[in-house]
Amino acid sequence: xxxxxxxxxxxxxxxxxxxxxxxxxxxxxxxxxxxxxxxxxxxxxxxxxxxxxxxxxxxxxxxxxxxxxxxxxxxxxxxxxxxxxxxxxxxxxxxxxxxxxxxxxxxxxxxxxxxxxxxxxxxxxxxxxxxxxxxxxxxxxxxxxxxxxxxxxxxxxxxxxxxxxxxxxxxxxxxxxxxxxxxxxxxxxxxxxxxxxxxxxxxxxxxxxxxxxxxxxxxxxxxxxxxxxxxxxxxxxxxxxxxxxxxxxxxxxxxxxxxxxxxxxxxxxxxxxxxxxxxxxxxxxxxxxxxxxxxxxxxxxxxxxxxxxxxxxxxxxxxxxxxxxxxxxxxxxxxxxxxxxxxxxxxxxxxxxxxxxxxxxxxxxxxxxxxxxxxxxxxxxxxxxxxxxxxxxxxxxxxxxxxxxxxxxxxxxxxxxxxxxxxxxxxxxxxx
Length: 432
What we know:
Elements: E1 6-11, E2 15-17, H1 22-30, E3 34-37, E4 40-43, E5 46-51, E6 54-59, H2 70-90, H3 95-100, H4 111-125, E7 131-136, E8 142-143, H5 145-151, E9 155-157, E10 160-162, E11 168-173, H6 178-194, H7 216-229, H8 233-252, E12 258-263, H9 266-277, H10 282-285, E13 309-313, E14 316-322, H11 334-352, H12 361-368, E15 372-381, E16 387-393, E17 404-410, H13 411-418
Parallel strand pairs: 1-6, 14-15, 15-17
Antiparallel strand pairs: 2-4, 3-4, 5-6, 5-12, 7-11, 8-11, 9-10, 13-14, 16-17
Pfam families: RE_LlaJI
InterPro entries: Restrct_endonuc_II_LlaJI (IPR018579)
EC number: 3.1.21.-
């Protein structure tokens, strides 16, 4: 990690003493990322805020960090970063949230995203290759027969033609090419500031940039000319990244910008995480969810039922609801509980109805064999166990509905599974 960079790790919806620059706090409050009350600050979003050399990392509700283990904390930070990038690319977010997440794909305005893509390209592909083509009288390299025949006199021996002076064609890599120098500089500076965030240390690769003094304005002009003279796809991508990086450096000399990768809707991230990790079959099973039947003259569009996650497991159907609650401080209320109970009741009644029919007859047979529907709440947690049963809820003095079981799911481990760093069978852990 760059020693000049200060980073703070916080938890969403937890109050802290204000120890941040006043101008930063005002800008964050204006963007609705945080609220201030009695010199206490509380963040209403999860993710990353970058301002000058300060990086603020806000973890989700109920999160736990081991403050005495720096390497462990950096892994948590890297996993959160990759989770938000994946969410940003997969979810259907509105304009305001996309702006808080750093802008639309291809329109990144912050150095964080440019740095990430520069490092990612460098790790996957290495430096760009610029070649110098030389023609020489030495016998090394490939013989350039066209030039040799055109410029050298042959000797004739019987039916043979002999060239005593052969011109060879030799290609070498131009390591001093200005474009490669600029790429090395931008990758080095990206690693210097953000490499630790992406799990990449500058010591992993030798990038000597000590001899490179950058005139940003001239470099940007040079890159613009390079763009007009190349049609190689990767070169075009990398040149644009280098130029955007240098433009960002130039702008930062004139203004103090806040860079963000945050979402105020981590409940949507939590739903995506749980949907993937529990292998939701909603896209296949959504046809079994009954629709509202209005008997009224109106062209209004009615909202349909939309359970988060539906799973078929032998003769049981599971309906999961990913709830973004800190259950130690707050619990779902009447609306959440009744809605979940109603999902189970109406879906089970629908598939058991003599009028129930779907096009997929094999699926229809499976559904007819369902004996019961289980309701489950999934809460984020800092507990060490990947998933843990913690209790249940029902409506008092009412035997018409089954209980809704409640589980805590370790957020860190769930995010690692979501981004593909771990594999775990969550459904196997659910009580029958």
